């Protein structure tokens, strides 16, 4: 089982063995947040990541943004990560969902349920920067990167990760945070349910003439959803939004072959003129879209989190939020187990985490898959039915409040961090 890791701090010269409480394999946003939470709670944590820490902070590494739901923002605030992100976070105050050119729409106004925004749009590199600062400053967390885990032994009362440079990391528990194609999960023999969509996500940033006023838009087109997500104003380019454009996979190479002017013209047709003229600023990115759900989230002295456990369609922008709820639940389970004097890697402890998170993840995976299939077509009877459905929900206040609270990530049995409480 391999995992490239970034070596922000390498083992001391000559050291062959590192002893830790927990080894986290994968230092992306979810894995790093978990390491931050556990390190702050007194655990000794070793993070093995495949990427160079300096590279992941560059603008060209990942052009995506994330919609950090209100509940997820409370997790980051409780871990004292939010102060390093807040200045670059744009609140979503309204959400408008429409079906192509239909006059029927669904509108959510945050003021209908309080004074909190639904979410914040934050560039992924901003989140990574805050996490990198925290991990490298932590006395309880060791970040080894770039590095590969060549084997992970999970026998008896502990785990041992063998790294590509010969270093061994010994711990009571291993956490797989190494993404949708997790080698840790595969080598543990954990099966998955998965399929690829015949769609590709195109991501870019656009500048526009008029302010967005914190409104996020999701337009359902025949090829898939077209999302316009409000970003913070930039001194150089002015008003900005992030575009998540779902397109038929076979058309994407031709779109990327267009020059900037031609590509912008194609985008503008879908964007509309409500914010004035638009201009693509910065590079374009593309990402294949797929659904994946692990049969189990746990194994012997092993837990899966984030995309290693589940990956969903970006139609509702909830992928990172699911991962952060995994973090909040697992961190709470492990902290509580240690306070009770229990073995943090024991199956009974990990089973509590699996029970807690499985239902939420399964429901949202099914919901996003169903919405994508329902709206990614132009069949007239189906289109009429879904437009009437949007209009009906828009008129039913209790239904609207339910969906708004879901968008904020504050439904169900909430971990302490999601409630804004310390571990």
Describe this structure in words.
The protein is of the alpha/beta class and 423 residues long. It has 11 helices and 21 strands. It has helices at 29-40, 53-56, 70-78, 124-137, 183-187, 252-257, 260-271, 319-339, 347-375, 380-395, 397-407; strands at residues 17-19, 22-25, 45-48, 65-69, 90-92, 94-99, 105-109, 119-123, 141-144, 149-155, 158-163, 168-171, 173-176, 192-208, 215-221, 224-230, 239-248, 278-294, 298-299, 302-304, 310-311. Helix 1 runs parallel beside helix 4 (124-137), helix 1 packs parallel to helix 8 (319-339) and helix 8 packs antiparallel against helix 9. The longest helix is centred in the last third of the chain and has 29 residues, at 347-375. The two termini are 32 Å apart.
Major sheet summary line: 8 strands, mixed
Spans where pLDDT lies below 50 across 5 or more residues: 1-8
* Count of individual beta strands: 21
Any idea what the shape is? Answer: globular
Please, what is the oligomeric state? single chain
Q: Tell me the β content.
A: 25-35%
Instruction: Give the fraction of residues assigned to helices.
Output: 25-40%
Strand order of the largest sheet: 7-6-15-16-17-14-18-21
Distance between the termini: 32 Å
Q: If you compute it from the alpha carbons, what radius of gyration comes out, rounded to the nearest whole angstrom?
A: 22 Å
Number of helices: 11
Summarize model confidence as the mean pLDDT. 91
Structural class: alpha/beta
């Amino acid at each position: 089982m391999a995992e490239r890791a970034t070596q922000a701090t390498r083992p001391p010269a000559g050291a062959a063995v590192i002893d830790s409480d927990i080894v986290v394999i994968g230092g992306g946003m979810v894995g790093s947040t978990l390491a931050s939470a556990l390190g702050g709670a007194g655990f000794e944590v070793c993070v093995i990541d495949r990427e160079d820490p300096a590279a992941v902070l560059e603008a060209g590494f990942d052009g995506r943004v994330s919609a950090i739901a209100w509940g997820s923002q409370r997790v980051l605030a409780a871990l004292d990560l939010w102060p390093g992100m807040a200045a670059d976070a744009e609140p979503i105050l309204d959400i408008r969902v429409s079906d192509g050119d239909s006059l029927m729409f669904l509108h959510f106004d945050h003021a209908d349920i309080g004074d909190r925004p639904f979410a914040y749009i934050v560039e992924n590199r901003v989140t990574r920067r805050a996490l990198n600062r925290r991990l490298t400053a932590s006395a309880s967390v060791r970040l080894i990167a770039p590095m590969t885990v060549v084997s992970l032994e999970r026998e008896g009362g502990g785990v041992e990760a063998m790294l590509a440079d010969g270093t061994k990391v010994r711990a009571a528990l291993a956490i797989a945070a190494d993404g949708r194609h997790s080698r840790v999960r595969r080598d543990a023999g954990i099966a998955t349910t998965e399929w690829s969509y015949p769609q590709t996500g195109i991501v870019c940033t656009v500048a526009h003439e008029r302010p967005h006023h914190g409104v996020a838009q999701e337009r359902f087109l025949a090829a898939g959803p077209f999302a316009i997500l409000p970003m913070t104003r930039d001194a150089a380019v002015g008003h900005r939004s992030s575009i998540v454009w779902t397109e038929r996979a076979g058309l994407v190479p031709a779109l990327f072959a267009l020059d900037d002017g031609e590509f912008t013209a194609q985008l503008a047709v879908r964007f509309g003129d409500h914010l004035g003229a638009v201009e693509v600023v910065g590079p374009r990115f593309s990402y294949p879209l797929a659904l994946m759900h692990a049969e189990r989230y746990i194994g012997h002295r092993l837990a899966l989190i984030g995309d290693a456990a589940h990956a969903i369609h970006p139609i509702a922008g909830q992928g990172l939020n699911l991962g952060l709820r995994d973090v909040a639940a697992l961190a709470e389970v492990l902290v509580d187990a240690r306070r009770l004097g229990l073995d943090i890697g024991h199956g009974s402890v990990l089973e509590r985490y699996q029970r807690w998170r499985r239902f939420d993840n399964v429901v949202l995976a099914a919901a996003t898959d169903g919405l994508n299939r329902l709206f990614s077509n132009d069949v007239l009877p189906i289109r009429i039915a879904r437009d009437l459905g949007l209009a009906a929900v828009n008129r039913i206040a209790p239904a609207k409040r339910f969906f708004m609270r879901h968008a904020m990530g504050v439904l169900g049995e909430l971990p302490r961090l999601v409630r804004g409480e310390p571990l």
